[in-house]
Design goal:
about 240 residues; mainly alpha; 14 helices
């Protein structure tokens, strides 16, 4: 009985990080909508630019810390944070800062989920039989392609793309590499929009946040998705054999 009690306690303790993330995310959804907004960026742009000019290195460190917190706890404002990165640091430095911070935050969610339930779920899938076993085997044999696909497809929520790999036993190194590389296209798009916010503010307009769905952006992204899916298709045509 004591062993079962200890096992139960250990299982509950493993869920604490994910429970904390869920609680902060819920609280943030009701309290931070107006704080992490485009309007807040517009109204505070002069102070932000002045602070950046006086403290570039510290500005990058503080910005990345805040971005990581936003991603880890799934707080509202991730898109505004990407725009802010471009506004403060330009397209190329801003893209590096945004993508790096998003990858660190995504890794935090991945590790919390894997420690809480992902590792046990993946182990159970490995030991199962029938369709579940075949699905898990198919995922394992196409991990790189599937990881890039869920990052490149604009319709897959970022939080979901962090949870799924934790539930199917994706190695940490593979998750980090595919996340960093896979979010670069979308990250550059939104960072470049942020880099042009000075002109948008001057005209009294709002940025086009749906730019990623415009044909000249969406079609290249779909092309990258097709390249990511190509190994899966070729393997299927070859009867499941490795290419």
């Amino acid at each position: 009985m004591s062993d079962m009690t200890e096992t139960g306690r250990a299982g509950r303790s493993r869920m604490l990080p994910m429970a904390a993330i869920a609680a902060v995310a819920l609280l943030g959804a009701f309290t931070l909508g107006d704080v992490l907004s485009f309007e807040a960026l517009r109204d505070n742009r002069a102070a932000l630019l002045a602070y950046r000019d006086a403290n570039l290195g510290l500005s990058i460190a503080v910005f990345m810390t805040l971005y990581v917190i936003i991603v880890v706890f799934s707080l509202p404002g991730a898109l505004v944070a990407s725009l802010t990165g471009g506004f403060l640091f330009g397209t190329w430095l801003g893209s590096l800062v945004n993508v790096s911070a998003a990858t660190i935050g995504a890794t935090g969610i991945f590790l919390a989920a894997r420690w809480g339930f992902g590792a046990r779920l993946a182990a159970r899938m490995d030991m199962s039989q029938g369709p579940v076993k075949r699905i898990k085997a198919g995922i394992d044999s196409n991990q790189w392609s599937m990881l890039f696909l869920i990052r490149l497809v604009p319709l897959v929520p970022f939080f979901v793309a962090n949870l799924i790999p934790s539930m199917v036993g994706v190695p940490l190194r593979r998750f980090v590499i595919s996340t960093f590389l896979g979010i670069i296209p979308g990250g550059v798009v939104y960072t470049s929009v942020g880099a042009g916010l000075g002109e948008v503010f001057a005209r009294g307009e709002t940025p086009n946040l749906g730019v990623i769905f415009e044909p000249h952006i969406l079609l290249p992204l779909l092309g990258l998705c097709g390249l990511a899916a190509l190994p899966i298709l070729l393997k299927a045509l070859r009867g499941g054999k490795d290419i």
